[in-house]
Design brief:
Length: 249
Amino acid sequence: MTDPVTAWHRLAGSAVLLDGFHALKHAVRFGAEVPVAVTADRAATLALADELAPDVRDALAALLTEVPHETYTSFVPRAHPTAVAALAVRPSRESNLAKLAHTPRKAPVVVLDNPRNLGNAGAVIRLAAGFGATGVVTTGTVDPWHPTVVRGGAGLHFATAVERLTVQELPSGPVFALDPEGDDIRGTGLPDDAVLAFGSERTGLSPELRLRADHLLSLPMRPQVSSYNLATSVAMTLYHWSTGSGAAL
Ligand SMILES: C[S@@+](CC[C@H](N)C(=O)[O-])C[C@H]1O[C@@H](n2cnc3c(N)ncnc32)[C@H](O)[C@@H]1O
């Protein structure tokens, strides 16, 4: 068996860093391939698994190798309170594209049109995982697998299909674009094959996305407020989809 230090250095450049116990737990639950996982305190980590994640306790026990605390801290930008870190294989673009293209779709795809804030993108991936969305697509320059986005996603990138595409490459399905100027979302039911698009934090929806949109919807908001935060807008919209409320289109 390769020692964890050699494996870490060999893989760190190309793999996805799972920073902390919860990120590793989520990634394992959702089928991530994890070639190396370390802890500075194996007994404490397995006690945490017994308490919080008995479903993956044995899988974690098989993956985790104890290393000295200094070795662990040399692997991560900032030590995590759980002193756990792992590297996972990023799913191939082909497999994500196949999931995004699969029909009939049972849950919407979320599109972030040129997001600028990496923490927001991570929070949206966590939301999409929680609601069982088919995927999260970003347009623009941000890589949705950037380490800061992965940190915000708490290991849940493996629970939904996360890819960057152009507006022209968006998956099929009716596009519902969210914008404060749209029709009140409460009057509209969102179908399971919806493509739910949200604008950039700075500039809102791009002209390309507006052209592609079939419906423009707004979230209820007092007139004096200009807009909501991007991730909270996604949360309200996915919640609206999950309730099945609003008139069916
Ligand atoms: C921070 S807002 C963008 C604000 C930007 N200055 C603008 O001009 O739209 C980010 C995104 O969240 C969504 N959003 C925020 N508030 C909304 C609302 N009241 N109704 C619908 N969408 C909203 C939209 O998709 C928006 O593009």
